[in-house]
UniProtKB/TrEMBL annotation:
Organism from which the protein derives: Absicoccus porci
Keyword Transmembrane set for record: yes
Domain of life the protein comes from: Bacteria
Protein name: Uncharacterized protein
Membrane-crossing segments per the record: 7-25, 31-50, 57-74, 86-106, 118-137, 143-161, 173-193
Keywords: Membrane, Transmembrane, Transmembrane helix
Length: 196
């Protein structure tokens, strides 16, 4: 019974995410298309988790792509603001380090005893998240987009991904928490449609 309920929840989540992404892609403004790509990154991550839970590499690349897309979306949305050069440099270094650690070494991905390496691999992702947090704090609720909520969603996305990645007890709870944060992110982007 528990497995059936979980399957129903998974299907409902994936359908809702897909619908939200399609809705964003149908909008005339390029900024919504960029945010749709952000959601696609997280959507792919969760789709892999539902269909093939062992493939942490693809999940890691998906969330890395999602964080990078959020960074690019901020740059394109808040052109009136200038990102400090040191923050841009930190983000780039963290992105490159993250991609490198995602591919080396492959055989340690499926072993829970390598939690130290898992933490090391997620350290650059944490750095990317900190930069994103600072950027969205700086932009605040500029133009009434409502993107100040990113200050809440970015930490949630990282925390739930980290808990899943470490393969701690009660992984289903972490997965559901991750889904809620992804859906909140999607709904926040949709409410921007009436603002832009």
């Amino acid at each position: 019974m528990k497995k059936k309920v979980k399957t129903i929840i998974c299907i409902a989540y994936l359908v809702v995410m897909f619908s939200l992404i399609v809705h964003l892609l149908e909008q005339p403004f390029d900024i919504f298309h960029r945010f749709a790509w952000v959601l696609i990154g997280f959507y792919v991550c969760d789709l892999i988790d539902v269909t093939y839970k062992e493939n942490r590499l693809i999940q890691a690349l998906a969330i890395t792509f999602g964080f990078y897309s959020l960074y690019q979306a901020w740059l394109n949305l808040y052109t009136m603001l200038t990102i400090p050069s040191f923050l841009s440099m930190i983000f780039t270094i963290c992105l490159l380090a993250r991609l490198l650690l995602c591919f080396v070494p492959w055989k340690q991905w499926k072993k829970t005893k390598y939690r130290g390496y898992t933490l090391l691999r997620n350290l650059p992702l944490f750095g990317m998240g900190v930069v994103l947090e600072l950027l969205f704090i700086e932009s605040g609720n500029m133009n009434s987009y409502g993107l100040w909520l990113m200050e809440i969603f970015i930490p949630l996305l990282f925390v739930f991904f980290e808990l899943e990645d470490l393969q701690l007890k009660r992984p289903t709870i972490w997965m559901v928490g991750s889904w809620i944060s992804h859906l909140g992110l999607a709904l926040m982007f949709l409410q921007m449609i009436g603002q832009i």
